Amino acid sequence: LQVSWYRVTCGSCETRWPDPPEKMSGMQAVWPSGTECIAKYNFHGTAEQDLPFSKGDVLTIVAVTKDPNWYKAKNKVGREGIIPANYVQKREGVKAGIKLSLMPWFHGKITREQAERLLYPPETGLFLVRESTNYPGDYTLCVSCEGKVEHYRIIYSSSKLSIDEEVYFENLMQLVEHYTTDADGLCTRLIKPKVMEGTVAAQDEFSRSGWALNMKDLKLLQIIGKGEFG
C-alpha cells in the first residue's frame, strides 16, 4: 500500500495528514479517552512519536491531541503513540453494552481455519462468534451444519448489528439469542455454543464480585407477609 502524505497549513497552523485508501465522508466526531477503535489499514508511521499498527488491531484512545486529525492511543500491550484518525474506526455497536469476555461463545480474534478446527468434529448447531479478519470492526458467526462450517458476516450498520441487513440487533447477545430460537435464514438454529477455554461465566464473575448469593447460604427465618404483588 502506497500512502501519500499531505502537509496542510491554515494561517499559522500546520498539520500532516496521511491519505487513506478510502476517502472519509463528512466530519468525524471527537472520541473521548477510553474509546476503542479498530484499525482499517496498516500504518507504519513516519515520526518517532507515531504508533505503528496493522489492519484489524484494536487501539484505545488515550487523549485528543491539539491536531484533530491525530489521537494519542495505546495498543493491546500498552505501547502508546500518535495515530491518524482516518486510519481507524470507532468500535461501537460491536460491543454495545455487554462484556464479551463473559460470553462463552465468543472466541476473539481467530482465523476462519482456527474456527473450523474448533467446531470439529461436526455437530449441527454447534457455533461460535469471532472477530472478522477480513472486515475489521465486524464479527463472524461460525456454525457447524451437516458436516461443514458456515461463516456468516455480522455487519455493523446504523449503530446496530445484522447478518441479513433485514433484522437488526442492539448487541451480539441479542443476535445470538434470536438465532438460538429461530434459524431465520441460517443453515440451522444455534443449538450449542463452543465454549472458549478459560471463559469466565457471568454467574461466576458476579459471585466473585459479591453480587450473586448462593441459595445454600440462605435460611428462612420468618414469613412476614403474603398476598398478590404485581
Automatic annotation (TrEMBL):
GO terms for biological process: cell migration; enzyme-linked receptor protein signaling pathway. One of its GO terms (cellular component) is cytoplasm. Keywords: Cytoplasm, Kinase, SH2 domain, SH3 domain, Transferase. Residues 32-93 form the SH3 domain. It is found in: Cytoplasm. Residues 105-194 form the SH2 domain. One of its GO terms (molecular function) is kinase activity. It comes from the Eukaryota. Its main location: cytoplasm. This is CSK kinase.
